[in-house]
Amino acid sequence: MISVLIADDEKWMRDTLLTSIEWEQHGFYIVGEAEDGTEAFGMIELYEPDIVLTDIQMPHLDGIALLEKAKGLGLDSIFIYFSGYDKFEYAKSALNLGAMGYILKPVDEDELLEMLLKAKALIKNEKETAKETGIVDENYYNKLLLSIKTYIERNYMKDISLETTAREFSFHPNYLSKLFKEETGGNFIDYLTDVRINRAKKLLKNVRYSIADVALKVGYSDAKYFAKVFKKSIGVSPKDYIGKNR
Q: Are 189 and 162 in contact (CB under 8 A)?
């Protein structure tokens, strides 16, 4: 699977890109979304995406500067630009820096998909070459796993599950479950539960929060079920834990 980062300061554009292509079907997954250049650069540093789809003009850091900074990190992410500005100098600057292409808004889905598939073929060819020379990039799955863990740690308080997380990354749930098991030795729900319970332990020490409050804050709408999961994980009930730690 090829990792893709989407960067655009307009939410409608990001939403359009997310829904206009059957990402998983074509061998891609979305590693994240950024609403400005600075956020995009942070995600590039963290996730090292294979492909960056970015508006050429964004707040704080434009698409050209973003590519230059990515190159400064030694990354070889493939950049595909889109813009509402039909100006030759933008396209020329982007292509001179090594961008794969420049698409005008509104983005034509077929044109974008064609460019993505070309990028995918190039990436796969490079990976095959690396394998043939004995250089196997283990970072690929490590990056993917890091992305999933980061997503869990940022969203554990919401009603997330294996299915919703798989959908977020444009995976089939079975594939995500298998990947998580192979890379961590554990399963998805165990990791999610650990994140939630560790956060709950910290919150339960705070006198401002009741058990029900804490349950909601870590993603459990049913306080009784939360208490059951907590006791199974920690060995004591939330009430007893409070008695020992407040």
A: yes
For 30, list phi and psi in degrees, rounded to 5.
-85, 120
Name residues whose C-beta falls within 8 Å of residue 44's C-beta, 6 or more positions apart in sequence: 5, 52, 66, 69, 70, 73, 75, 77
* Spatial CA neighbour of 93 closest among 102, 85, 103, 104: 102
Answer yes or no: do 37 and 147 share one domain. Answer: no
The SS3 assignment for 81 reads strand
Say if residues 79 and 40 touch (Cβ distance below 8 Å): no
Residue 57: partners with Cβ closer than 8 Å, 6 or more residues away: 63, 83, 85
For 162-213, the pLDDT digits (tens) are 999 988 887 778 888 888 888 888 899 999 999 999 999 999 999 899 999 9
H helical segments located in the chain: 11-20, 37-47, 63-72, 88-96, 109-132, 139-155, 162-168, 173-184, 188-204, 211-217, 223-234, 238-245
Provide the CATH number for the domain around residue 180.
1.10.10.60
- What's at 210, amino acid-wise? S
How many domains would you assign to the chain?
A: 2
Residues 154 and 201 in one domain: yes
Show the domain range for 66. 2-132
CA separation for the pair 101, 53 (Å, rounded): 10
The domain boundary residue, chosen from 132, 148, 173: 132
pLDDT tens-digit readout, 112-140: 999 999 999 988 887 777 666 555 567 77
